[in-house]
Amino acid sequence: MNAYEIYQNIKPSIIVDLFQWMRNEERELYKTTVATLANDRKLRPVFIQKKPVADQIAWMHKTLKLKSCDMVGEHLFQVYFMQGQQDLLVSFCDAMDIEHDGKGSVDGDLPETLDADKLKAAVDTLVEKFDPQLVSLYLRVFNLQTENGWDSLTELIASDDRLALSAA
After folding, report:
1. Most CB atoms within 10 A, among 10, 22, 125, 136?
2. Buried-exposed string 13-25: b where 16+ CB fall within 10 A, e elsewhere
3. Side-chain half-sphere exposure of 133, counting CA atoms within 13 A
């Protein structure tokens, strides 16, 4: 599943949280995102910036559902997890014995394979600790970090009902 498809299928509250975090903590990234998406749609950024915040976020979410915005959408997910959801990254890396810098940034290369049993245990822990939709989003974004993803992770995402994306 590509980033734009994730935006099409995830519940809006997760995306609202992402953009609220970005607006509060990464103001320049928020402004750049508005400008980039507006330019992609052949609009002037000021047209979007004049809207109320809730409308800006709804417009950005709608725009990120487009295939042409896939790269931007994936980048936003990466920044959100690397800077706004570090506890989740650290928990996952620790559970999978992936070496990292203490903030979730992987030291060295990502593993070529993911042990299915260890992955299942990691997901069980994450789902207990975090919103299952956020965990599902993270695992899908993580799976985008290597061409074609990891087979064990792809299978787990497809088979574990807790990891189903829900646009409701």
Report:
1. 136
2. ebbebbbebbbee
3. 15
CA gap 84, 21 in Å, rounded: 7
Domain boundaries, the chain: 3-84, 86-163
| Encoded tokens for 41 | 């749609």
> What's the confidence (pLDDT) of residue 102?
79
In angstroms, the CA 30 to CA 12 distance is 17
Q: What is the dihedral of CA 17, 84, 134, 92, to 10 degrees?
A: -170
Helices 116-129, 151-159: inter-axial angle, 10-degree rounding: 50
And the tokens for 63? 């725009």
Residues forming a β-bridge with 9? none
Q: Do residues 135 and 163 lie in contact, with contact meaning Cβ atoms separated by under 8 Å?
A: yes
pLDDT tens per residue across span 101-132: 877 778 788 888 899 999 999 999 999 999 99
Chain segment 43-99, per-residue pLDDT in tens: 999 999 999 999 999 999 999 999 999 999 999 999 999 999 999 999 999 999 888
Token code pair at residue 67: 């295939």
